[in-house]
Amino acid sequence: MSDIQLPERLEGVEPVRSIRTFASLTYQYTPGRAASRFLKEVERKRLVGQRCPVCKKVYVPPRGSCPTDGVATEEEVELGHTGTIVSFCVVNVPFMANLMEIPYVGALIQLDGSDIPIMHLIQEVPYDEVHMGMRVEAVWVPDGEISHTLESIKYFRPNGEPDAPYDSYKENA
Amino acid sequence: MADQDVLRAPNVVEYPFSRTTGPVIGAFFTALREGFIVGIVARDGTVIVPPVEYDPHTSESLTELVEVGDTGEVRSWAWVGEPLDGQPLGRPFAYALIKLDGADTPMVHAVDTGGDPSKISTGMRVRAKWLPAKPAGASEEEQTDPKGAVRTYREGHILDIECFVPGGQA
Fold first, then answer.
1. Best of B14, B30, B68 to disrupt the A interface by mutation (most A CBs within 10 Å)?
2. Which band of pLDDT confidence, cut at 50, 70 and 90, is reported for residue A98?
3. Chain A contact for B60, CB < 8 A?
């Protein structure tokens, strides 16, 4: 602004236009008992959800209770490593320090045997061929690198099966 | 299931924000980088430090920046017995409202009394302890770490004043 009157000592001095306001928040995260059990099974290359005793839906990753019925979910159900894309997003904006080459696809994948989708990457297919109902399979990191994280699955890729019928995933579409 | 079976992991969320300052606050930070402090003259003639862009009573734009002293008087204070990460000093200190000489409003900053809470009182005289100026040719990397946790030279930041210390004649 030109009408600001500066004291003499600031005349002709290169002005400060911005300041760095770095913020860092350090948390201790715990996934809780149910998701801890799930992640420990991931370490054994197994995907295990939990079934609600009332509505019979299988939740993955399990949270230990059914959000609809408000009851504990104790029955464990092993799920397949294949599933159906119920929704997806083509990402064209680079972020996360260029970790991914754009465009890439993130998708909600309903694992076979479960009733709620998980989010993961879709690879080994052109981004514009990804669609709802597409059948995919998990590609795991090498056995020595598997640990208690969903990053133990590198991504999902089409497994060549014909598209799943809409009725099989419409509740999550 | 025993609690030791529950997983736990550090989760650090970081935001590398920077913030534009505008002409008035920008001048305040520019002055800090140059090693002095400026305020702004309000419509009623009082000097407000740090400077504000608009008059607190009439809402008019304020434009007249003036230099004030880097010594002043503690008007009020609160002792910080257990400093947290990111606070100005690593040992116990006081946050104080300091009315600088030539200013009419007090400004918040840290006062270092060597960790001794008995050595601060309302009305005591304090003076700014400045970081050194950035030497010519010092690189950005030399100047400070990207998170701003370690500051070596003045760069146009409130912590160009490391803290205030007892002393400073009126």
1. B30
2. low
3. no
Token readout for B11 is 């989760």
- Given pLDDT bands bounded at 50, 70 and 90, which one contains residue B157? very high
pLDDT tens digits for range B63-109: 999 999 999 999 999 999 999 988 999 999 999 999 999 999 999 99
**A21 → closest Cβ in B13, B18, B156:** B18
Are the beta carbons of B36 and A9 separated by less than 8 Å?
yes
Q: Which of B3, B4, B7 is best to mutate for the A interface (most A CBs within 10 A)? A: B7
Alpha-carbon gap: B142 to the closest alpha carbon of chain A (Å): 16
Domain ranges for chain B: 20-166
pLDDT at A23 over 90: no
Nearest to A19 among B14, B19, B147 (CB): B19
Q: Give mean pLDDT, residues A85-107.
A: 85
The predicted complex's ipTM stands at 0.81
Going from the C-alpha of A40 to that of each of A79, A163, B7, the distances in angstroms are 15, 31, 9
